[in-house]
Each structure stands twice: as C-alpha cells, then as structure tokens.
Write a sequence for this structure.
C-alpha cells in the first residue's frame, strides 16, 4: 500500500484539527504540525487557507455521501426506516467524532460563511444534495403508503435538514446527544405520526435555497 503523500496528510490531519479547533482557530502551523510535514508543504499544495477549507469540506462530505447512499437512498429498506437510520447515523458520527466537536458543516456555517463566499456556496450545494436525498426518501414513503400523497416532500425535507442540524449544534453546546434524540422523537412521534394535522403547516417553502448557477 503506497504511503500517503504530504498533501493527503495535510488534508486528513488538517480536517481533524479544524474539526476540533474551528476553521479560524486552526492555524496553518497547527495543521502542518499535526500532519508532520515540512513547513512549506501547505503552500506547495494549497493556494490559500480558503482553498484548503473547501477541500476538507469535500473530504468530510465524502463520508456523509456514503451515509446518504446507505440510508436515505437505500431502496432495500422501508423509507421511514431509512430516514430513522439516517438520523441515527448522524448521532453516531457525533459520538465518534467527539460530541464537543459537533458537525463540521455546522461549524463552518457559524464562523466561515461571512468571510468566504466560496465556502458559503459550497455548503449550499451540499445542503441541497442532502435535501434532495431526504426528498427522495419521503417520496418513496409516499409511494409505499407510509405517508399521505398530499404532503410537501420538499418542504418537509428542508424542515428536517434545518431541524437536525440545529439539534446537532445544540448537542455540541450541551455535550450531549439528547437534542438529536429529542428531534428524532418529535419527528417520528408527532410530525410524521400525525401528517394530516401537522404536515400542512410545513407546506411553506422551507427547502434551503440552492446556489446560483
């Protein structure tokens, strides 16, 4: 097996550093030291810290996309089970990555989008892809008779994205998985359990805006 290149080391270890300290709190020196590579390696491989940030976002999303494929887009299971599995997978990842670190996307939303238009637009693209996968799963639930045909699957998908990421942010603040558990209980025990009463209220345009072409 080939040894990882300096570039791969910077991305892999730099992702961990940024996840722990935040994008603003992680200096290039911190990243280089964690990767164990020469000082000039960073500028040899990345035009700027922003360019590095975009790459670690994509690296993090590679794993998230695998989760989307294994849960929301996995037609081998019933749709609402896939939705529950997706939320549970996010909960597990919070624990595995360190509850105090939160979700990398949420961290970037909180500190980088006001300073980097490129990062903001990339996050919009990612959330649009996640929302599309949720909408796919909800439409499958409608087709399977698990949800009524009249619900606004796009609006509900947008609500789930916002609600889940808000819960994950609170999980970081509280150092506890309870906010995500609470979100899941309310989603399945109230909102999806009583769709004729509660889901019409979500028929507003709740889906996140997509990036401009």
């Amino acid at each position: 097996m080939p040894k990882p290149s300096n570039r791969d080391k910077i991305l892999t270890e730099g992702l961990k550093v940024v996840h722990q300290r935040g994008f603003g709190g992680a200096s290039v020196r911190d990243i280089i030291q964690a990767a164990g590579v020469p000082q000039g390696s960073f500028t040899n491989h990345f035009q700027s810290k922003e360019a590095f940030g975009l790459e670690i976002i994509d690296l993090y999303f590679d794993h998230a996309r695998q989760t989307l494929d294994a849960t929301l887009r996995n037609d081998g299971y019933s749709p609402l089970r896939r939705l529950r599995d997706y939320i549970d997978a996010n909960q597990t990842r919070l624990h595995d990555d360190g509850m105090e670190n939160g979700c990398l996307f949420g961290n970037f939303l909180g500190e980088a989008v006001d300073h980097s238009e490129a990062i903001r637009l990339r996050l919009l693209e990612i959330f649009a892809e996640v929302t599309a996968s949720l909408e796919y799963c909800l439409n499958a639930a409608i087709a399977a008779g698990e949800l009524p045909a009249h619900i606004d699957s796009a609006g509900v998908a947008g609500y789930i994205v916002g609600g889940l990421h808000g819960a994950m942010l609170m999980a970081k603040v509280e150092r506890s998985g309870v906010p995500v558990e609470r979100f899941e209980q309310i989603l399945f025990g109230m909102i999806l359990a009583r769709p004729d009463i509660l889901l019409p209220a979500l028929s507003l345009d709740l889906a996140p805006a997509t990036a401009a072409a």
In short: The mean pLDDT is 89. The two ends are 40 Å apart (CA to CA).
